[in-house]
Design a protein that fits this description.
It is built from 3 helices and 4 strands; from the N terminus they run βαβαβαβ. By secondary structure, it is α/β, with parallel strands linked by helices. A 4-stranded parallel beta sheet has the order 1-2-3-4.
C-alpha cells in the first residue's frame, strides 16, 4: 500500500521569511501548507508582525496558498473555556483553511462541546448535527 500525502505543513513563517519564496515553493509543491503561528502577545520571530501578515495575505489570495493558522497561548485556553472573541484573531484567520490549537502540554479546561465556540466554518463536520449553539462570528445556527 502506498500512502499519498495531500498536505505537508511548514510551520513558522514570519518576518524573516521571503513571501516570494513561499509563492515559488507553493507553485512547485502545491501540497505545501504554510503554518502561521498566532498569539495574543507575540510578534516578530516565529510569530509574524502585522505588516508582514498583510503582505502574506495578499499573496495567499493572489496565489491561492494553503494556510493553517496555529493558535497559541492565551487564545487556546480561551477557546477551550468558550470565551474566545474571534474578532481578536489576526487577519490570517480569513485565509486559513485549517486551524491548529497548540496547547504546548499546558493543562486545558475539560469542556464538553467546546467546538460550539468555534465559528461555523471551523466546526468539525461531526459536531454539526449535535450543535445547536449560535455561531460566535456570524450568529447563524
Amino acid at each position: 500500500m502506498t500512502a499519498r500525502l495531500t498536505k505537508v505543513t511548514v510551520t513558522g513563517v514570519d518576518d524573516t521569511t521571503r513571501i516570494a519564496d513561499l509563492v515559488e515553493l507553493a507553485k512547485e509543491f502545491p501540497f505545501v501548507e504554510w503554518g502561521v503561528l498566532v498569539s495574543s502577545t507575540a510578534q516578530g520571530v516565529r510569530f509574524p508582525s502585522v505588516a508582514w501578515t498583510a503582505k502574506f495575505l495578499q499573496a495567499c489570495f493572489d496565489h491561492k496558498l494553503n494556510v493553517a493558522m496555529h493558535v497559541c497561548g492565551r487564545w487556546v485556553r480561551e477557546i477551550f473555556r468558550r470565551e474566545m472573541r474571534w474578532v481578536d484573531l489576526p487577519p490570517v484567520f480569513s485565509a486559513a483553511q485549517r486551524v491548529q490549537l497548540n496547547t504546548h502540554a499546558e493543562p486545558v479546561p475539560r469542556v464538553l462541546n467546546w467546538w460550539d465556540a468555534l465559528p461555523c466554518r471551523m466546526r468539525p463536520r461531526s459536531a454539526a448535527p449535535r450543535s445547536s449553539a449560535p455561531c460566535p462570528s456570524c450568529s447563524a445556527r
